Amino acid sequence: MRRDSIYYKIFQRFPELLFELVDEPPEQTQNYRFESIEVKETAFRIDGVFLPPESATPRIIFFAEVQFQKDETLYHRFFTESMMYLNQNQGKYDDWYCVVIFPSRSLEPTDKKTHRIFLNSDQVQRIYLKELGTPEQQPIGINLMQLTIASKQAKQAKQLIERVQLEETDTEAKNKIIDIVTTIAVYKFSSLSREEVEAMLGLNIEETRIYQDLEHQTKLKTAARLINMGYSISEVAKGVDLSVEEVTKLAENPPQ
């Protein structure tokens, strides 16, 4: 499981989680959008950008990087891309911050001198998940992020679900958090069946977004194979329970 990519999926669904980590979160955190931004006239894309709502005052942009592999070039790339984006969008934002999330200090780049002007600034915050304290001491949002590095992940996931069901009164928020826990568990224990994951977590995951997404991906893969075997669009659509439009699009743009 690539845990950095899991974080980006989590931030897309629950962008306000990032602001549980930062020292001075902006107002309207629930209205921020998490995006992957292409930097014009360059060959790169910034994977983690939190864009403020149009109505925000001040308009503060957050650049986020989740790093679960050793990469000595991380700071060179991250700060260069962030500053280039700001240069191309002058006047659009009132302020900016960078947040870098590591599981532990051991994965941080060794060279901290070259970029000390950034690293020593109050606009850059480095988070080490293993130093945030025990799950019982943390808000539920931080518990979610710690779950990706937990040594006893199944046990901690079940405990977190039980805590959410007891403490969280907002049904929509509760369902969102449970969906994220399920997403992490499904990716971590990819060899387990749905029934085994349900038994491990103590809940029914059939209606969760991650299960529906995976089920849809399985249908698309099956449809692609049937198309290659020569079945008609209508036969494939009926056989795998997809719309004719989806199968037609798949036939016109087959997966590589």
From TrEMBL:
Swiss-Prot/TrEMBL keywords: Coiled coil
PANTHER family documented for this protein: SLL1542 PROTEIN (PTHR35586:SF2), SLL1691 PROTEIN (PTHR35586)
Domain of life: Bacteria
Coiled coil: 147-174
Cited InterPro entries: DUF2887 (IPR022573), RpnA (IPR010106)
Pfam family, one: DUF2887
Source organism phylogeny: Bacteria, Bacillati, Cyanobacteriota, Cyanophyceae, Nostocales
NCBIfam families (UniProt xref): T_den_put_tspse
This protein's name: Flagellar assembly protein H
Species of the source: Brunnivagina elsteri CCALA 953
